[in-house]
Design a protein that fits this description.
Length: 80
């Protein structure tokens, strides 16, 4: 089981991500940050390309629904 928390400091607006899981090195491939735009995290068996796509979509001012659509079109399940 994986637990992820994202937080923002009310004073500095700095963002942080904490992840607890069985997978070693998860901090190297799950969290994604784009200064002034977003902080997000994939979980467990992650596809880092999806995190990068989400940041790119958010940086292009796409809505959350559009970002989710972008991610769905790139997922393995959508290719069946």
């Amino acid at each position: 089981m994986t637990y992820t928390i994202l937080a923002r400091c009310e004073q500095t607006w700095r963002l942080g991500i904490g992840i607890a899981t069985y997978s070693l090195g998860v901090g190297g491939y799950c969290p994604f940050f784009l200064r002034g735009v977003a902080a997000l995290s994939t979980q467990a068996f992650a596809n880092p390309a999806l995190g990068l796509l989400a940041l790119k979509s958010l940086d292009a001012s796409r809505s959350l629904a559009q970002v989710m659509g972008d991610l769905a079109t790139c997922s393995p399940a959508s290719r069946r």
